[in-house]
User: Fold this.
Amino acid sequence: MLTSRGSGSELEVLAVGAEAVLLKGYFLGIKSVYKVRVPKPYRNPKLDLKVRRERTSAEAKHMISARRGGVNSPYILLVDPDAGVIVMEYIEGDLLRNILNSLPECRACTLLEHIGIMAGRLHNEGIVHGDLTTSNIIVCRRIGKPYLIDFGLARASEDIEDRGVDVHLFLRSLESAHFRVKDMAFRCFLNGYGKVVGEENLTKVVNKVKEIRLRGRYVEERRRHH
Amino acid sequence: MKTIVLGIESTAHTFGVGIVKEREIIADTRYRYEPEKGGIHPRDAALYFMNIGPSAISEALRSAGISARDLTGVAVALGPGLGPCLRVGATHARAMATYLNKPLIPVNHAVAHIEVGKLVTNVKDPLIVYLSGGNTLIAAFNEGRYRVFGETLDIALGNFMDTFVREIGLAPPYVVNGVHQLDRCAEKGKELIDLPYVVKGQDVSFSGLLTAALRAVRRGVPIENVCYSVREIAYSAIVEVSERALVHTDKKEVLVVGGVAASKYLKEKFEIMSSSRGVELAIVPPKYAVDNGVMIAWTGLLAFKSGITIEPERAYVRQRWRLDDVDIPWFGQ
Ligand SMILES: Nc1ncnc2c1ncn2[C@@H]1O[C@H](COP(=O)(O)OP(=O)(O)O)[C@@H](O)[C@H]1O
Ligand SMILES: Nc1ncnc2c1ncn2[C@@H]1O[C@H](COP(=O)(O)OP(=O)(O)O)[C@@H](O)[C@H]1O
Ligand SMILES: [Mg+2]
Ligand SMILES: [Mg+2]
Assistant:
């Protein structure tokens, strides 16, 4: 399974993510990424297998639907849930996390607006991403456009709660790692998001985000035994 | 001259008075409010604090062998926490500072948990995993503050564990001989049953797991197997989000703070994860992982040396004072 076919080149390690090892190579002659979900030895083996299998299928399935809904994401070439492996198109570019802080403001705003548009399209498609952070967006070097990756926690959902969680996760990734640009970045993101989902949905989601953030998570409301 | 700071903690169930002289802990007095049954009733706790407050302060000074005049300043946890409880600590601290004409130093309780953890374990720039009864939070220093990278979307891990064992009739008491009833009951379990494992980004959620686990018990699934599954799922989810945050932040140390950090099963999982990532793991010993006055004194000392003080008349309590609202100018010094 993990031998590269097509060009005869070897697989090389591209990245060691939080849950997967990513290898770069060729698949059927196409420059590809092999995402291999590795076992987590701290998890019960049965639980571990279940989690990896479910996330692998979810990732492939929702990446395919996302593309159908007009979201830039890598093209899926092969899926093997039992082995925890996905082979997908390689996107040449930079992680948003690594470049956002040094982008010129207007460029950053255009990019964030585009990301907002993609998040909106994904939600309109009935999918939530589940891990929407600046670490899971690649800015393609060739066309300068953002690609969404890492759909392992994606789910089919039309709940405002789940959509709110996506937007909350994105906002928090801005606050925690891009503090200086967070206000501008979030405004541009919502601008794009609102264009796609409409005023009414935008308001609902934004209110939900506020609610999620008031649930006493940052704050220390102590244990109440009812 | 050495800096000596007295710190007062009264954010929830503990009235603590600590005194530090530079890095040395010279007093650590604690009074814990134990409700007769059920949870913490803020007003009763506050009444209790008002009763024991003045003598707790004298006791701390006596055990440090100093007089109040020797203090450089008085620190107090102004939040986050329960309003009535917070106000008692603030009142005592304001009175002391005004009467002695010493600087008053505002301290955030969550920051204090982190700083005392760093003091006793000697880590420098960790990913912080804060697991108490009321908090589940993953944070790390970035651009001048402790930023929040992950948290619970509903209930805190400790609260979740306590609620589960109470609902199935195993508690209170929640912890016996340093072992939580969930861990104890899980020891006899063997089989993993299917319950929701929820991770969203770097966040966890336990409300679905709680409902499903209680339903399984009612359905007659052997209780040991439910406990085992709950423990495996809840602890694995916490370790997984910590690992995600570690990759995201690129920190080289992990500091686990809070009451739940005392669980050896949780510790085992953190050890496996940390060694596979090549990072150092530090778990704050229970004595300093729970609420205490020393952590307020120590953080107060750090803040004071960075020039942070507050006028007593402006020292309001802040029930919802966020961790990432606090500047940490002393970081790295
Ligand atoms: N299709 C791709 N093209 C190029 N790089 C990729 C691709 N997919 C993943 N990567 C790289 O691998 C890293 C981890 O991948 P990701 O899918 O986010 O895994 P994890 O779930 O472990 O975070 C990404 O941050 C990115 O740098
Ligand atoms: N040995 C232990 N193993 C697991 N959990 C524990 C242990 N000891 C205490 N706890 C849990 O830690 C929590 C209390 O932690 P603490 O830091 O004092 O929180 P808080 O200040 O929010 O009450 C409770 O939920 C309690 O059940
Ligand atoms: Mg990722
Ligand atoms: Mg606490």
Summary: Chain B has two domains: 4-114+289-325, 127-250. Chain B touches chain A through 64 residues (CB under 8 Å). The domain at 4-114+289-325 of chain B is CATH 3.30.420.40 (Nucleotidyltransferase; domain 5).
